[in-house]
Design brief:
alpha/beta, Rossmann fold, 3 domains, five-stranded parallel β-sheet, 13 strands, 15% strand, binds 1,3-dihydroxyacetonephosphate, binds iron/sulfur cluster
Length: 329
């Protein structure tokens, strides 16, 4: 079957919008009506007029759209979850709060911030405690806003994002379970989660490229280790990396530390991949054109598959945390 032709036919016929993250495989990405980084995709899906959203990405992305736009029917071609989001569950979150309480910080003096790469249950716990969601593109503004409260920030689940923004902002951070982490001595206390894909990039990779091409620039995602981000010329969300690369002179070489599909799509731009291995996100790569076809066909057949539902109680508090983020311009 010509899946591509069928997908185009179904998109023309149905009141549906296909959203696609930059890490999706090229053949899927090319069929998306809206693309962007996590924040842009959330905002664009919320503002979109179609009642159906088919989200090509990972679980927390479709789930976030369902929470901020509950009237929409959200389907995902593959119900694949980001491995970092799976590193923290409700009990790990509670233990992190307890850790801070044991170290002399009152619960009411803790402001939790969760990276959007987390389950709705974590967002709900954060929302209930007065906390907020952030993405890699707005973390600076969100942390700045969080600091205004005068509270200690508990940052989950990505220790790298928490530490990298703390470094950029001149704040002290520590990671629970890694060396001495005294919450009284730090401004941002991070949970010990990470992205396995972005851990592949190392300072040695940067040194290798700089030795080979002395004028090369280095752009990385803030999910990379703090040692890598410190060495880089630029760190930003997927959209911000694309804008940075597009702003460079066409003769300027740039090596990029983020997921392979995105970097490969920019190959005509004098761009290199910051790794000797192929840094693919396994879950982002699970979605195929056939999966996209099947999910669209299920709408045509009035038997939708892979629909995203979020329990009412969870959605209520998770929405608080997401809406607080979306209010920050
Ligand atoms: P962005 O919000 O920068 O698109 O990042 C999403 C992600 O999962 C990065 O690994
Ligand atoms: Fe999650 Fe890392 Fe994949 Fe992004 S690249 S979706 S953080 S596992």
């Amino acid at each position: 079957m010509d899946y591509r032709a069928e997908i185009i036919r179904l998109k023309e016929k149905l009141p549906v919008t296909v959203a696609g993250h930059f890490y999706q495989r090229d053949d899927v990405f090319e069929l998306a009506d809206i693309t962007g980084d996590s924040l842009e995709l959330a905002r664009k899906c919320q503002a979109d007029n179609n009642p159906w959203v088919v989200f090509c990405g990972v679980g927390f992305m479709g789930q976030s759209v369902k929470i901020i736009a509950p009237e929409k029917r959200v389907l995902m071609p593959k119900l694949a979850e980001c491995s970092m989001a799976r590193m923290i569950d409700a009990s790990y979150f509670d233990e992190s709060v307890e850790y801070m309480v044991k170290h002399g910080i009152k619960k009411e003096d803790i402001l939790p911030i969760t990276y959007i790469n987390s389950d709705a249950l974590i967002k709900a716990k954060v929302g209930e405690m007065g906390g907020i969601v952030c993405t890699s593109s707005n973390a600076y503004k969100i942390i700045e806003k969080g600091l205004e409260s005068g509270k200690k920030i508990l940052f989950v689940p990505d220790r790298c994002l928490g530490q990298n923004f703390a470094n950029t902002m001149g704040l002290k951070s520590c990671v629970i379970g890694e060396g001495e982490c005294d919450p009284k001595e730090a401004d941002i206390i991070c949970f010990n989660g990470f992205c396995a894909v972005h851990q592949l990039f190392t300072v040695d990779d940067i040194k290798f490229y700089r030795q080979r091409y002395p004028n090369i620039l280095v752009a990385v995602h803030p999910e990379c280790d703090p040692s890598v981000v410190k060495e880089a010329d630029f760190a930003g969300s997927t959209s911000q990396i694309i804008k940075y690369v597009n702003s460079l002179d066409e003769n300027q070489k740039v090596v990029v530390g983020t997921e392979y599909n995105l970097v490969n799509r920019m190959r005509e731009k004098n761009t290199y991949v910051l790794s000797a291995t192929k840094p693919e996100c396994p879950t982002m790569n699970e979605t195929t054109v056939e999966d996209l076809y099947k999910v669209l066909k299920s709408i045509e057949d009035n038997q939708p598959i892979n629909e995203i539902f979020v329990e009412e109680d969870v959605a209520k508090y998770a929405k608080l945390a997401l809406d607080r983020m979306l209010e920050v311009k």
